[in-house]
């Protein structure tokens, strides 16, 4: 049976921009309009001679993705502009250079580039402590996110916002593009009992928002216990229809397995799938998240199934490696497929063809699988034979509601 195209087609909706109302009221630093030039939040701040930060002790949440449009490290730029005003650095999962493997803790250390202390936000704590924030007046967030709820950089931002509020520190977001664009909204909601560091705020698995927009929504919706004084420094020249390739910026590997500008789409398509057992998603290897394979699966049978899905912008080829069989994915940067839905269809079929081995998971692995998905429902539904079509259809009302709810926080046309 050929599945209907509408299952994999994104809805095109017109989003109206309205003011975000939140106590305390977030500020938005607006770029000059009319030039048409693309400009990151950090570059706009530089164009104003860092007026927002001068005369203050500044802490920066940063890593290897924190680069200006000209390819200079944000921390180097701030240290040169502010001198001793830049007093501390803070690094998320994967460390300040992005080389630490996923899930591995690292310790506070000295930055070889600036000589400043780099406080670990993925070690003994993931939320900055009062001692960590003591050297600063304002905490600046400048990380490149990938647009998916389970990627932990937004979780770092959210808990840091709460910590800043608790310690009386201001919080500034230097906004950056969502590499998946601003229209793609897909996937399941996050149930409150599954809130974790791979799902910190109740947004769809793919939310179609920038870090600055998410910060404003987090503050206004009171998804954190305390709300800081928040300023978002907007980009110039970014619009919701733009994907990463439209910005003209080079891609800086956000983590060891997100090496390319196209990687976020692959992460969405197999990230949930990767929580199963006896699975190959291309890690380790040269195509991280680019494989959907499992033990005991016939590549030809899996290829036939995938082609029947009729997913626009996604093509498949047979894959076999050792005992793993399945498909290799090729995703066009502007594909119209619902990639989170495709993740669930691939998971369901691999589980079926493997005789249930894929979802034969227990303990910590099952707990993480449910946290990434945001619910235990996927595991339970697939185990009892609920069709992936029915599972995906169950998200749609929530996603439509979220699109309406997020409108007042959207900063870009």
Structure description:
Helix 4 (153-166) packs across helix 5 (211-220) and helix 6 (263-270) crosses helix 8 (339-353). The protein is an alpha/beta fold. The two termini are 39 Å apart. The strands form two sheets. Strands 1-8-7-6-2-3-5-4 form an eight-stranded mixed β-sheet, with helices on both faces. Mean pLDDT is 92; it is low at 4-23. The protein has helices spanning 41-47, 74-82, 130-133, 153-166, 211-220, 263-270, 299-308, 339-353, 363-373, 377-383, 388-393, 396-406; strands at residues 27-29, 58-61, 86-91, 109-110, 117-120, 138-141, 170-174, 230-233, 279-280, 291-295, 314-321, 324-331. The chain contains twelve helices and twelve strands.
Summarize the main sheet: 8 strands, mixed
The strand line-up of the biggest sheet is: 1-8-7-6-2-3-5-4
CATH architecture of the largest domain: 3-Layer(aba) Sandwich
Strand/helix succession: EHEHEEEHEHEHEHEEHEEHHHHH
Distance N to C terminus = 39 Å
Which bin fits the share of residues in helices? 25-40%
Contiguous uncertain segments of 5+ residues: 4-23
Under CATH, the topology of the largest domain can be stated as Rossmann fold
Quote the beta fraction: 5-15%
Determine Rg (CA atoms, Å): 21 Å
| Global shape | globular
CATH class categorisation of the largest domain:
Alpha Beta
CATH H level of the largest domain: which superfamily? Uncharacterised protein PF07075, DUF1343
Kindly state the number of beta strands: 12
Number of helices: 12
Counting structural domains, the number is 2
């Amino acid at each position: 049976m050929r599945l209907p195209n509408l299952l994999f087609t994104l809805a095109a909706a017109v989003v109206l921009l309205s003011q975000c109302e939140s106590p305390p009221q977030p500020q938005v630093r607006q770029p000059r309009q009319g030039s048409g030039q693309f400009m990151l939040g950090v570059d706009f701040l530089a164009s104003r001679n860092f007026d927002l930060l001068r005369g203050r002790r500044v802490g920066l949440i940063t890593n290897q993705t924190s680069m200006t449009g000209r390819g200079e490290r944000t921390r180097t730029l701030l240290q040169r502009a502010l001198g001793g005003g830049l007093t501390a650095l803070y690094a998320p999962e994967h460390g300040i250079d992005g080389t630490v493997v996923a899930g591995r803790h690292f310790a506070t250390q000295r930055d070889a580039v600036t000589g400043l202390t780099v406080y670990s936000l993925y070690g003994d704590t993931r939320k900055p402590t009062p001692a960590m924030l003591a050297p600063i007046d304002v905490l600046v967030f400048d990380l490149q996110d990938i647009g998916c709820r389970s990627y932990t950089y937004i979780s770092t931002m959210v808990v840091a916002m709460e910590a800043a509020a608790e310690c009386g520190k201001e919080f500034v977001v230097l906004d950056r593009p969502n590499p998946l664009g601003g229209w793609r909204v897909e996937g399941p909601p996050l149930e409150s009992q599954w809130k974790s560091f791979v799902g910190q705020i109740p947004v769809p698995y793919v939310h179609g928002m920038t870090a600055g927009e998410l910060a404003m929504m987090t503050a206004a919706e009171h998804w954190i216990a305390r709300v800081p004084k928040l300023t978002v420094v907007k980009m110039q020249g970014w619009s919701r229809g733009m994907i990463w390739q439209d910005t003209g910026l080079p891609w800086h590997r956000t983590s060891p397995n997100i090496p390319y500008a196209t990687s976020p789409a692959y992460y969405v398509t197999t990230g949930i799938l990767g929580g199963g057992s006896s699975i190959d998603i291309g890690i380790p290897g040269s195509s991280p998240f680019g494989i959907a394979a499992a033990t005991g699966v016939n590549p030809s049978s899996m290829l036939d199934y995938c082609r029947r899905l009729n997913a626009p912008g996604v093509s498949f080829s047979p894959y076999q490696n050792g005992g793993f069989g399945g498909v290799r994915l090729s995703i066009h940067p502007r594909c119209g497929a619902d990639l989170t839905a495709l993740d669930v269809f691939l998971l369901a079929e691999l589980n079926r063809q493997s005789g249930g081995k894929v979802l034969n998971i227990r303990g910590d692995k099952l707990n993480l699988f449910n946290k990434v998905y945001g619910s235990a429902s996927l595991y339970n539904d697939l185990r009892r034979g609920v069709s992936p079509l029915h599972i995906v259809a169950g998200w749609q009302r929530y996603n439509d509601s979220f699109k309406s709810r997020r409108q007042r926080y959207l900063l870009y046309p």
